[in-house]
Amino acid sequence: MNSVPGDKELPLEEHFIELRSRMLVVIIPVILITIITFIYSGEILKIIWNNAIPLPMTVYSPMELIFTRFKLSVVTALFIGIPLLLYEGFMFVGKGLYKNEKMFFIKVVPFSFLLFTSGAFLAYFLVLPILFKYTIFYSTDVADPQVSVIRTIDTIITLMLGFGLVFQFPLLLVSAIKMGLVKREFFKGKRKFVYGALLAFALFITPDPTAISELIVALVLVLLFEFSLIIARYF
Known about the structure:
Elements: H1 12-39, H2 41-52, H3 64-93, H4 99-137, H5 149-166, H6 169-178, H7 184-188, H8 191-205, H9 212-234
């Protein structure tokens, strides 16, 4: 097997030492950001709550608010630390990659992170307010709605993470087309079936009795699908 130009074969121990040092470069800033974020996590929590939840905060245990603030701080630090993690990971494995593999990494990974961020922002600024507004007041004629702080934050994080992963759809589709697993023309002739499948998927992942969130998710998936076909055509 031909080795990568400029690559040096090193003992396994040295690779572990380098990996540890690079992970420390990531872990230490993440810990610091977590601590700093925790100090201001109360204000951050209020901003998130006021944007998405039309009800006052409710806690059901003495430690619930503290756990919520800590979880929010960790998630925020991890999200901020993702670019640094990707950079250190690339610097670690980049020595053993060919030039075309490095170019693929440089092109795809930042674009993937941008898509993930776009999906998370869409979930937070558009889907979450609609979802909580209609699902909460949907039951007001039966019971007085109250929502737990930590469970609500868990729902918000899960939904943002889910939308971020859904926004990876263009990369997956374009990669499948480029690798020859499927043909672009195959999807062009079966749009009705694809749209129906995307709508069914949106109905499955979005628990909204008003169907508003499902339609938003389905529309987003359709736009991502068409965007993927355009990218596959020119790249």
